[in-house]
Amino acid sequence: MTTIGDVAKAAGVSVATVSRALRGVDRVSPHTRERVMAAAADLHYVASPAATSLVSGRTRGIGVITPYFSRWFFATVITGIEKALREEGYHVLLCDLEGHTFDTRLPITQNMLWKRADGVIILNVPPEPDERDLLDRLGMPVVTVGNRQPGWPSVRIDDQAAMAMATEYAIGLGHTRIGYAGTVPTSVSHLQTPFDRRQAFMDVMASHGLEVRPEWTLRCDWTADGAAEHANRLFGGGDRPTCVVAASDEMAFGVMSAARHRGLDVPGDVSVIGIDDHVHSRILDLTTVRQDVEAQGRHAGAIMLATLHGHEVSPSHDEVLGVELVVRGSTAPPAADKAPATPGPAPAKGVKTRTRGRGVSETLAV
Fold it and tell me: In terms of domains, do 143 and 83 share one?
């Protein structure tokens, strides 16, 4: 078995230099590092991760704390983080806090991170005071994605601006009877985005003198299934909105499905707009406010690496990525020149229904 001494002899350097070169320590010249790496490759030498960690005090792992792993947004952010980290030999240590219900989560504990990670990236989870104390005691760099926390650098979009953009677009089309999908119980204190987007919707509606009707406000668990269930009841009566603004594309998918199952045309009878530009939004022809989710992960990973390499990153660093409106075929002006369609009965479970097409849709290709 090849040893670190064999590599040192082949490269003509000391064992300590080989160790520093393989660990990526800055005190090795590029020429020497290249010579050591070539010798290690020729001899098929692989350093023991455990031994390297003991010597360097580094695990080369970054804890990524997420409230959900199975949701598209969080999985995509993690993909971006992993791509940034692996370029420099780091890996993701996933800490999934998903509880048994939407309004619960597991706590952040010392066992998740102690001697397992060199830093922590937190996705959309405002830590409780005792969790914040724990992270401060561990002394690891922390970066947040999706919400701003005092004393830690962050990467995010402006959730209120994104929702304002979606709502203003709906009103600009002429809609005044607008519903909302995305209200959550106050017990969902571990997520900030639902409350920010809801507040922005209410503010824009108020600024235009428009009523936010409680019966047109859908409270759900931010999944397509949850939104479809609630929207099915919304579209079951004759008094319905001409547009529904959803706080995420996944909920918008559920609203579109419920409308069509009730025999309503999208957007002829009801327009639907979301936020995210989910991977399926183009296929489903959904108008949305696009955010670059993977880029948020890449930027967070880059900030973490810069901190670990000794570069100064201000604790107040707040990187706000832009959003953009993407107009597709799920929105149109309200059909004021015809009577509202009478919704049909909800289909029985397991029964497929065919909805009438709109013929031609106005789509902005992206």
Answer: yes
Closest CA to 10 of 31, 41, 39, 46: 39
Residue finishing a domain among 56, 75, 99: 56
As given in the structure block, the two tokens for residue 318 are: 């707040």
Per-residue pLDDT reduced to its tens digit, 93-132 = 888 887 666 667 777 777 777 777 889 999 988 888 888 8
Residue 163: the pLDDT is 97
Q: Are residues 182 and 275 in the same domain?
A: yes
Cβ-based neighbour number of residue 54 at 10 Å: 10
Looking at the structure of the chain, the number of domains it has is 3
Whole-model pTM? Answer: 0.74
Tokens 């590029």 correspond to 30
Query: Helices 15-23 and 49-56 sit at what angle, rounded to 10 degrees?
Result: 100
Q: Tell me the C-alpha distance between 283 and 294, whole Å.
A: 19
Peptide bond into 194 cis (omega under 30): no
Q: Alpha carbon of 246 to those of 10, 103, 324, 352: distances in Å?
A: 63, 19, 16, 25
Same domain flag for 226 and 79: no
The verdict on 132 and 198 lying in the same domain is no
Q: Based on the fold, state whether residues 284 and 315 are members of the same structural domain.
A: no
Q: Does a structural domain hold residue 352?
A: no
Q: Which amino acid is at 302?
A: A
43-88 confidence digits (pLDDT tens): 877 655 544 444 445 668 899 988 887 788 999 999 999 999 988 8
* Paired tokens of 299: 């930027």
Residue range of the domain that includes 232: 159-291
> Could you tell me the two tokens for 93?
């240590």
DSSP one-letter code for 214? G
Q: Are residues 149 and 164 in the same domain?
A: no
Residue 172: is it exposed, middle or buried by C-beta count within 10 angstroms (0-12/13-18/19+)? Answer: exposed
Order of strands, sheet of 217-219, starting from the edge strand that comes earlier in the sequence: 217-219, 178-183, 243-246, 271-276, 287-291, 323-326
CATH for 40: 1.10.260.40
